[in-house]
Amino acid sequence: IKRIGVLTSGGDAPGMNAAIRAVARSAMKRGIEVCAIYNGYSGILSEEIKVLNHNDVSSILKQGGTVLGSARFPEFKQPEVRQAAVEILKKHGIEALVVIGGDGSYMGAKLLTELGVNCIGLPGTIDNDIAGTDFTIGFDTALQTIVEAVDKIRDTSSSHRRANVVEVMGRNAGDLAIWAGISSGAEAVFIPEQDLSLPEVLEQLKKAYDSGKRHAIVILAEGCIKNGLVESPEALAKLIEVHSGFETRATILGHIQRGGSPTAFDRVLASRLGAHAVSLIAAGIGGRCVGVQQNRVVDFDIVEALETMKHVPALDLYNLCYEIV
Ligand code: F6P
Q: What atom of ligand 1 comes closest to residue 13's alpha carbon?
């Protein structure tokens, strides 16, 4: 194999650059040329393609976001668009592709593999919602950002004797909320995967207030709003105010969670997964997605991952949130 491509797709995540670097460097070590494809799958169609050299990926390891740019590209669902993409890749001599992104990006990788371009999917998303891997690239950094923000919110909440509802990202997954809940010592955590007895939580918060507690942090996964468990962070804050005695505020952390320099954990994870993707491609293998399980790098059939494997949040950790409150 002489030349491969690399692209990032879907929502960006810290550590994507570390993955791009690992793919580029490890391919170059094997004498394989690497083409950067900019702005996700749409960059294939618009031919935003450039051959990378060793120095092009210098110093990107520590940068947040993705130097390749990212985009969601629903048009890629159309067979004629994918066929055109394959022709363009051929024209540029690109024989295989590493796709870094969420499971929407995996679907594109699966379809291109079926058309003869071997693709490998790398899990790049802060949501940690991809089947077949214990951790996705970006999750640890986003978690760190959330915890730093919640620690600050707790300081001011405590000064004013308030409860603060903090909405965190995660799309339909509660992983960020669970891990943030434990590491910030939250008094309550709401996740979309588990229905929670609201009256019980309100009662607990009232007890905390009556016992003289000066602050309460409630972590709300955004998925709870999408699936109707909670109307909004403000509505939940109002309920808490009415029932517990705490004055309340609501904070939506938003896109701050997607930025920033990746943690060492994310850099190492991205580097391991990127290098493994290249080793698969070099062996003529495609249609796989790569992950880490119990600290070992693994890979799976991408069709199997999309159709039969399901990401489940760590419910034991969720229970722990309430056990140590
Ligand atoms: O998938 C990453 C993510 O940040 C989700 O947590 C969130 O629901 C979504 O992307 C936000 O998307 P956008 O950046 O398009 O608003």
A: 2
Q: What is the ipTM of this complex?
A: 0.98
Residue 283 C-alpha to ligand 1 middle, in angstroms?
A: 34
Q: Is the CB of 225 under 6 A from ligand 1?
A: no
Q: What is the 3-state secondary structure (H, E, C) of the chain?
A: CCEEEEEECCCCCCCHHHHHHHHHHHHHHCCCEEEEECCCCHHHHCCCEEECCHHHHCCCCCCCCCCCCCCCCHHHHCHHHHHHHHHHHHHCCCCEEEEEECHHHHHHHHHHHHCCCEEEEEEECCCCCCCCCCCCECHHHHHHHHHHHHHHHHHHHHHHCEEEEEEECCCCCCHHHHHHHHHHCCCEEECCCCCCCHHHHHHHHHHHHHCCCCEEEEEEECHHHHCCCCCCHHHHHHHHHHHHCCEEEEEECHHHHHCCCCCHHHHHHHHHHHHHHHHHHHCCCCCEEEEEECCEEEEEEHHHHHHCCCCCCCHHHHHHHHHCC
Quick: pLDDT tens for 145-157. 999 999 999 999 9
Q: Whose CA is nearest to atom 1 of ligand 1?
A: 11
Instruction: Based on the residue annotation, tell me whether 301 is a catalytic residue of this protein.
Output: no
User: Model's pTM, two decimal places?
Assistant: 0.97
Q: Which of 10-24, 243-257, 305-319 has the lowest mean pLDDT?
A: 305-319
pLDDT tens digits, one per residue of 108-144: 999 999 999 999 999 999 999 999 999 999 999 999 9
